[in-house]
Amino acid sequence: MKSSNDAREKPPRAEKLENVVIRAAGPDDATEIASLHNLPGYRYGTLRTPFHSTAEIRRHLESPAAGAYRLIAEHDGRTIGDIGLTPAGNPRRRHVATIGMGVHDEFAGRGVGSALMKAVLDIADNWLDLRRVELTVFSDNEPAIRLYERHGFVTEGCLKQFAFRDGHYVDAFTMARLKT
């Protein structure tokens, strides 16, 4: 017989996913990325709204922001995560970029986010000489916060009532990783 404490224990962590391929996203990936963005768990952790269309994603992929990078994670030919690295745009902040990312609901907690993060930070550090990479994350998204912390990000502040999600205003943390 299980005690009431057993019911509150976390389920065992899923095995780390092998054979994840990280590559640049292109217009031909629009359908898969739109499907990814429309997953409820993916969307819940991002600023995305429901019902992103393939055409909308394709337009974004065909006309990216200057200097932006868009990567996807694939497993067995299936898109299971994505990340964007977007320069700040202001000449006085040319040392800064912002990231946004998400992982497929079925593959969360299996190393996909870490693989995406490593790839984009390699670009930031070894190809662009970015000194600061920043992001915002919902304050209740503990798995994402832990991921970012493992990759050197620190919380710089709390943005109260940052976004409207699922019928309520939610706070977010602003985090950054500084290369010294």
Automatic annotation (TrEMBL):
PROSITE patterns: GNAT
Annotated protein name in UniProt: GNAT family N-acetyltransferase
InterPro entries hit by this protein: Acyl_CoA_acyltransferase, GNAT_dom
Keywords: Transferase
Lineage: superkingdom: Bacteria
Pfam families with a match to the protein in the record: Acetyltransf_1
Biological source species: Endobacterium cereale
Positions of the N-acetyltransferase domain: 20-180
